[in-house]
Amino acid sequence: MARENTRAIFLGILTPKKIFGGEKMQRIGKQTIEFTAKPKIESHGAVAGKKEAEGPLSADFDQTFQDTSLQTESWEKAEAQLQKEAVSVALAKGGLKPKDIDFILAGDLLNQCISSTFGLLDYNIPFLGQYGACSTMAQTLFLAAVLVDSGAAHRAAAVTSSHFCSAERQFRTPLEYGAQRTPTAQWTATASGCAIVGRAGRVEIVRGLAGKIVDLGVKDPANMGAAMAPAAADSIYQFLQDTHTAPSDYDCIYTGDLGQVGTDLLHQTLQQNNLDLTSRHQDCGLLLYDRTQQDVHAGGSGCGCSASVLCGHILSRMEAGGLGNILFCATGALMSPTSSQQGESIPGICHVLHLRRS
Amino acid sequence: MARENTRAIFLGILTPKKIFGGEKMQRIGKQTIEFTAKPKIESHGAVAGKKEAEGPLSADFDQTFQDTSLQTESWEKAEAQLQKEAVSVALAKGGLKPKDIDFILAGDLLNQCISSTFGLLDYNIPFLGQYGACSTMAQTLFLAAVLVDSGAAHRAAAVTSSHFCSAERQFRTPLEYGAQRTPTAQWTATASGCAIVGRAGRVEIVRGLAGKIVDLGVKDPANMGAAMAPAAADSIYQFLQDTHTAPSDYDCIYTGDLGQVGTDLLHQTLQQNNLDLTSRHQDCGLLLYDRTQQDVHAGGSGCGCSASVLCGHILSRMEAGGLGNILFCATGALMSPTSSQQGESIPGICHVLHLRRS
User: What pLDDT, in 10s, does the model give residues A47-59?
Assistant: First the structure.
């Protein structure tokens, strides 16, 4: 009898918990998936450095740091701290604790993604490290939405970061060299953004597309915009084809960090395919800084650029009612200094998410 | 009328395609998810280098390369080629073409995961780059199973690679230095494995657990086994708790690449928690080489180690009927040379998958 009882209790514990009812996810067209349970962005946080705080989106950040070392001993540790702060803000704004999050998907630009590892270590949340270069915010958000919509998670967090100083010394030269930057170069944002996907919130994730690696042979590491533009064109075109929608069906189509050079190339490429994006398009890399006042050359870039613009600026505008329906298309350049030194080209990638005020 | 027809055709195209019927995924206990549609491993391929071809698993690989440069100009390009070959073999064995795969999840140990980017570029499959160090094979397989089980994908491929020579020069010293290796050091496998998850196949993915980052303060980059063992203990213990199962419920529990040092620590840690793993446990890093004949010190490691052992050795044995029910627990050390130089410890992670012959 006692054994029967124990068995009953065990079976009770073992009964798997069903989180979401309804249908499984569905595919539309060639590459797009439709989230049938429409996961929501339950909370979000964005933090940024001094230069970003001096830019036009200053008021949109939850926290800014005049001391971009964040009182740590190295730029890498500072970047990890940025990611920690972004998650902390997103949790606090949502009235959530780390134990309320079932998965955290995170990435950054540093070798072996150490900002994510060391920034998130203390949260004790199941961790899935992502690498999509500057497209990582869209990639983490896409997979967070898949995990929540599928019933695998109650809540999943998506977070990415970048830091100008850690990126410069890893990808280009240490700051102390004082190297000259070319006009096509972009400024890696010192920033981080975190979005928590769950079942409550005013913004829902409707559809998503994971991009293909697109390589048109661009080899100049000082011109990332040109390297990423073909991928942005490919993914946006395919998403519109798959969903039978036009740019005019969205209040805005945001690309990650093409900057001015990549933006011009994206418009040209899509125009050749009879798609006019110009009246609906904004680029996070062009929104983050005032290029007439701030010396950022072609615009902003880095994993933290589109992350902080999404989690600081875009989602707040959507929640406030200014925007109802957008595409978020973060772009990444999948290269390393080693691959460029070995003569490889710079392949690009772009993932697309359709967000809507519910 | 013509317009009505067009609209009808459009709506027809737009009707989302439902791939899987049945329930959404479910959560068990604290960290484990149950795949309700039980995605299957439809095909798999493993390729390896010269040293691995001289080891005890020689006959299990689909292809081996005596020339570990794979006739390319650099070790990094050779590693990318390994990944390309593993996917090619898995596709061919399954009678599949790249267009049959909806997502490819891939990762490696190189900075910015360039083996994955350049190895998979030509396949033109939607790409989601993963970074979990040597745990990446379990991570990619976990997310591939989520994508298929959720209905987001018909098929998703999981692939990882490592190369002894590219890893040595990036993480330690170039081979030409002839540096002495410590007895606790492990040998990075020159290998790659690819598994294609779909709806047909003899091995099904039953449950999965994404690990937490675990850091007990190990700082020696020449002793990865010790750094990863606590994470393996944490994830295996939690999985067994969540599912109310014991080691004896599985034919074998495979860890990724703890080597001899990490294996001993894992056994000790779990024994302190009243779990005796010894009779059911194998480590991929100890299976890949013959330590009495091959100079690999504490055993094998690298993203390609557990990937090639899973996709060459384990899955073949399961399909042949020798193994019915296993846990695959790949482990990773989430460090970089920079983080170690800056005095950081080496946090570990371990993801668990329950595979069963159906």
Answer: 999 999 999 999 9
Nearest residue to B23 (alpha-carbon basis) of A323, A58, A118, A23: A23
Looking at the structure, give the CATH architecture of the domain made up of residues A202-357: 3-Layer(aba) Sandwich (3.40)
Class of domain A26-177: alpha beta
> What are all long-range contacts of A270-279, with beta carbons under 8 Å and residues at least 24 apart?
A270/A233, A270/A236, A270/A237, A273/A233, A273/A237, A275/A236, A275/A237, A275/A240, A275/A246, A275/A247, A276/A247, A277/A236, A277/A247, A277/A253, A279/A247
Which residues of A are less than 8 Å from B112 in CB distance? 109, 111, 131, 133, 334-336, 339
When mean pLDDT is compared across A230-234, B10-14, B33-37, B297-301, the lowest value belongs to B10-14
Q: Do domains B26-177 and B202-357 have the same CATH topology?
A: yes
- Which chain B residue shows the shortest CA-CA distance from A131? B129
pLDDT digits (tens, 9 = 90+) for B48-106: 999 999 999 999 999 999 999 999 999 999 999 999 999 999 999 999 999 999 999 99
* Residue-range domain boundaries for chain A: 26-177, 202-357
Asked if B17 lies within 8 A of A26 by C-beta distance, the reply is yes
Tell me if residue B203 falls in helix, strand or coil.
strand
Q: Is the pLDDT of residue B113 over 90?
A: yes
